[in-house]
Amino acid sequence: MEKLSLEKELKENAYPGRGIVIGKTPDGKHAVTAYFIMGRSENSRNRVFVEDGEGIRTQAFDPSKLSDPSLIIYAPVRVLGNKTIVTNGDQTDTIYELMDKQQTFEQALRTREFEPDGPNYTPRISGIMHIENGTYNYAMSILKSNNGNPDACNRYTFAYTSPVAGEAHFIHTYMHDGNPLPSFEGEPKLVGVSDDIDEFTKLVWESLNEDNKVSLFVRYIDIETGKYETRIVNKNK
């Protein structure tokens, strides 16, 4: 698989929607994840990321303008022991609760489908990072309608054991802007990351479409110790 430029992928796509990046730094020391949200409507754009325990949640920037919280207010990131869960919806809670009951990432997601926002039927994208005793692996998932047909849900899981230093995978909800919005297709894209969290955060944020970007979360986790650094960038301030 060709390694793509994350910067180029983002700059050339005005509306990838929501996106998850997971990988490992070039020096092999840190597990990396990034999650961003974008919006076309006033309701979607009226959001910020705020820290919530070891994770984050979305929150209305101006509560008086919040018209429908159902698909936009949720916890994108939660931490369960040595597992970090990153998703684009309230399936974060589903994964957390069912994995806490010894079910697997895939089993938890079998209880969910794409979002009920026809005609887009936005895919649910999810990631899980597992760090234990100096080892690291991750998996990504997408639940999507069958080519826009909501009568069928197509489920794909991609697991990455022994991730290679300097490599990451990028999955997002939409192929590009459109009406209806076309769902992401294929495997998560192979992209690069950098050793420096601030450099990487800046690259992602500045590459996202200026009109549509809303918020960005980046976390670097030390694979040996489990300690982490987090960056949050919100357009609304």
The SSE string, one letter per element, is: HEEHEEEEHHEEEEEHEE
Looking at the structure, what is the overall shape? globular
What proportion strand? 35-45%
Question: What is the CATH top level name?
Answer: Alpha Beta
- Rg value: 16 Å
Please give a structural write-up.
By secondary structure, the protein is mostly beta strands. It has one domain (6-234): 4-Layer Sandwich (Glutamine Phosphoribosylpyrophosphate, subunit 1, domain 1). Helix content is 15%, strand content 41%. It contains five helices and 13 strands. It has helices at 6-11, 42-45, 91-99, 105-109, 197-207; strands spanning 19-24, 30-38, 47-52, 55-60, 77-80, 83-87, 124-132, 135-146, 149-161, 167-172, 189-192, 213-222, 228-234. A six-stranded antiparallel sheet has the order 11-10-1-2-12-13, with helices on one face. The protein has a five-stranded antiparallel sheet with strand order 5-6-7-8-9. Strands 3-4 form a two-stranded antiparallel ribbon.
Keywords:
mainly beta; Glutamine Phosphoribosylpyrophosphate, subunit 1, domain 1; 5 helices
In short:
The chain is mainly β and 237 residues long. The protein has helices at 6-11, 42-45, 91-99, 105-109, 197-207, and strands spanning 19-24, 30-38, 47-52, 55-60, 77-80, 83-87, 124-132, 135-146, 149-161, 167-172, 189-192, 213-222, 228-234.
Strands, helices and their partners?
Blueprint: H1 6-11, E1 19-24, E2 30-38, H2 42-45, E3 47-52, E4 55-60, E5 77-80, E6 83-87, H3 91-99, H4 105-109, E7 124-132, E8 135-146, E9 149-161, E10 167-172, E11 189-192, H5 197-207, E12 213-222, E13 228-234
Antiparallel strand pairs: 1-2, 1-10, 2-12, 3-4, 5-6, 6-7, 7-8, 8-9, 10-11, 12-13
